[in-house]
Every structure is written in C-alpha cells, then in structure tokens.
Amino acid sequence: MTVDSSALPFKPDPGQFFHIRCAGTYSPFLRRPLSIYQIHEHTLEFLYVVKGKGTTAMTRIRKGDTLDMMGPVGKGFELYKQAETVLLIARGVGIATLAAVAQAAFQQKAHCVAVLSARTEEDLLAAEYLEEFGATVYKVTDEGGTSDVSHVKQLIQEDILPFYKIDSLYTCGSRRLSKLAQSIAFDHQIPGEIALEEHMGCAMGACFACVCDIQEGRERKSVRVCMEGPVFPLEKVVME
C-alpha cells in the first residue's frame, strides 16, 4: 500500500510505524500498527499480510481514498554512519520492517547481508526488493527444512561471519531467531537492535497493552513498545 506523505514535516526513520484506521466504521474498532516498508521523498509504502479483520478491511482501500493515520510513532533503527556491512535477520512480516533498513544502508553505501526466514519460498516477502539494493540474501524456509535455529546458526557462523565484517545487526519477526541474534551479537561483540511486534491499543503509551521487559544493568523493568520502542538495543530485551 502506497500513501502520499508529502504533508509530513520530516521523513520517518526505518523501524517507526503508523497507527492506521482500517475502515470508516467502528468495526474493527482498534487501529493497526504498520511498520514502514519503503521511504521515498513524497510517499511511504507499507507491506502487510492479510490475516484478520483489520488487514482484510484494508484490502478495500482504493486509490484516491483518504487514510486516517497517526504517526510516525516510536523509536526507529539507528544505522551507524561508519557501518560498512550490516546483517539483517528476519522472519515473516518482520522482513518488511527491515526492508527500510536495507534501503537506508544502500543510501549510505553500506552493504547489507540478510537472512530471511518464512514458511515457504512464496512467503519470503521483499527478498527481491532487498536484492535490488545490492543485499546478499540467504533464504531459509520451513518447507525446505532450513529454517530451524540450528541451521540458521550454522549458516551465519560458516557462510557469513568468516567472510563479512559485520558492523551492526538488526532483527525482527521471530522470538527464536531474535534470541539467536542476541547470542551472536554478544559472542562477536556486534552492536544490534531489535524491532518488537506487539498488539497495540492506543499507540500513545496510555493503555499499556504493548509492554515488554528490558534489562538495564541489574534492573529489570517494563517499557511500552509503542513509546520506548518499537526498536530497542538487542542486548537489553528480555526474551524468555
């Protein structure tokens, strides 16, 4: 879905999202948070999977319609200016969230290496789009028997880390792969960030429906994904 963003006073950051009203009625009642897929000068693109009342209602939006959108919301990814090579690890619709990171990396002449995971080859959203930005893409799928954590770990350790000096790591879309990314980032001292996906009510920090736990030193505390996130330092997020 492409929307006119010329009224925005500034460009959003990769990882930020918009809270979108799906229909002109009160059913569905709650808005849906959609991460930005592509960021252009006067337009924004959103990539989503139709799987419930909200996204089904959005399929009825037509060219020329006016959308009720709130955003950009939250903290986005920080792409380090000195980074020469970045690693993306994404699963399912999390690939769409990280696509804007690949776009930003390309614009600052950094190379992107991506491990994309999905149930089937057809579900590997945005793989071709990442390749257009010069990304080296590794595809793993459930149907191919290559998406389990042990295989992805072996892939990264044997086919990626020995050949690329990874300056930063970004992940989204899978708790098990995010835990793997957290482990790899720790073992190899790679700074990393994670975009968390949570159900949201207000996206203004008032309802506390999207709380997650982070660890800061010895203190473990709850934070709101919509306000303090959705992007967090990878090492701080508690994943159990």
From TrEMBL:
Keyword Amino-acid biosynthesis on this protein?
no
Its keywords, alphabetically, are:
2Fe-2S, Electron transport, FAD, Flavoprotein, Iron, Iron-sulfur, Metal-binding, Transport
What are the binding positions for FAD in this chain? 32-35, 54-55
The Gene Ontology biological process annotation of the record reads:
pyrimidine nucleotide biosynthetic process
Q: Which cofactor does it need?
A: [2Fe-2S] cluster; FAD
Q: What is this protein called?
A: Dihydroorotate dehydrogenase electron transfer subunit
Which InterPro entries does the record cross-reference, listed alphabetically? Cyt_c3_hydrogenase_gsu, Dihydroorotate_DH_ele_sf, Dihydroorotate_DH_Fe-S-bd, FAD-bd_FR_type, FNR_nucleotide-bd, OxRdtase_FAD/NAD-bd, PyrK_electron_transfer, Riboflavin_synthase-like_b-brl
| Species assigned in the record | Halobacillus litoralis
Q: Name one GO molecular function term.
A: flavin adenine dinucleotide binding
The entry sums up its family as follows: Belongs to the PyrK family.
* Record domain FAD-binding FR-type: where: 1-79
Q: Which domain of life is it from?
A: Bacteria
Name any one Pfam family assigned in the record: DHODB_Fe-S_bind
Transmembrane keyword on record: no
Annotated [2Fe-2S] cluster binding sites = 202, 207, 210, 226
| Note accompanying the cofactor annotation | Binds 1 FAD per subunit.
Transmembrane regions listed in the UniProt entry: none
